[in-house]
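Task: fold both queries, return tokens.
Query 1:
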Amino acid sequence: MILGYHIILGTYGFWLPNDPRGSYSKHVWSPDLAKHGPATTVKTKHSRAADPHDIPKRLRAKRDLKFPEVFLSGVQAQELALGIGEAVSKYDFQLLAFAILEQHIHCVARSSSMQSEAIVKQMKRYAGNRLSRSGKNPLASFREENNNRIPSVWARGFWKRYIDSEDQLLNTIRYVEQNPIKEGKRAQYWSFVSKNDDLPHT
């Protein structure tokens, strides 16, 4: 029985499909990035962010991105989060934990009717639209280079893990809540995050 999903969304350029530390991608779609090697597909469940790797190689590949790597300011992160809150209010899913950082989002989501792919689709759509409507999209100046459309601030695809036990659910909620603190930032509190009576305090 699936109790929820641990989902990570990266911003554009955050984690490339051929990152030397490994990735969950199976293909490198961009010809400019493909010259830096094939996808480095791995199936490990733990974070590889701190793994030793060829840093210059990773940075050389990022220089060949079509658009600049996206780093969110505090105001931009706030707008993205508010857009995700709009998606929560309109669709049949809950967020039990949520944290947004400079280049990625962690969340714990659950739904009685939506799969993770559908949840992510709406989160990305509403968040991107909110960012553009607010005039805070960091890639807005590249509209003309992208067929008169503002490029997406999101990386292709997403990372997920199924949550199938109460212990795993509670541990993942704690992990997401602690994520900003581990990076030296303050704890985050969002009105669209559900605090259910059936879950012990985290």
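Query 1 returned. Query 2:
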Amino acid sequence: MDIYASDEEKGEEIKQWWRDNGRSVVIACVLGAIVIFGGRYWINYTNVQSEKASQAYQQVTMLLEAENNTAADAITQTLLSEFSATPYAVFTAFEMATLAVQNKDNESAQNYLEWVTLNAKLSAHKELASLRLAQLFLLDAKFEQSLALAEQAKSTAFSSLWAELKGDVYIAQDNVINARESYETALSSLAAGEPRQLILKVKLDDVAE
């Protein structure tokens, strides 16, 4: 805008600018408002979902303590279907998988653990579910499936547990050489003083030459 122009000329320039750009300004303001209010709505919605999921998880744990497994399973199904994005659904799936193993219902345990591997947001939860699933396959003598999961493992935090699992699978297959190598790998991955060192040393002694 020309600073030496008259007030009338300045007014005309402003009007012309508004004619040229007014629509874009209005649209930008509307979109900005949508983003702000949409973000607030989403935060509120997420908080409400998390609170509902937390309450449902507490109900499941209380029902399990009361050994009302049927009611616990019904609420679990709601958690997994309606609140799958929350960590409480993952916690519940782990609880129900443990219960299923205790009841020797390995098929249900497998379903719960597979759900975690597909739906959990945290990689640690996915890895833990895969590890437990591999242990379950070992119990069911599905050795190749167990080893396949172990080969796919990427987390260094679980490396010792995966190596130990592989050793257990090799023992079940009477493959003593590979079992010994796996146990040695598992032992070397531990920090000094960890309780699992004693367990691994015992397993190594059992496969000693």
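Both queries returned. Flag for query 2: Residues 1-5 have pLDDT under 50 and may be disordered.
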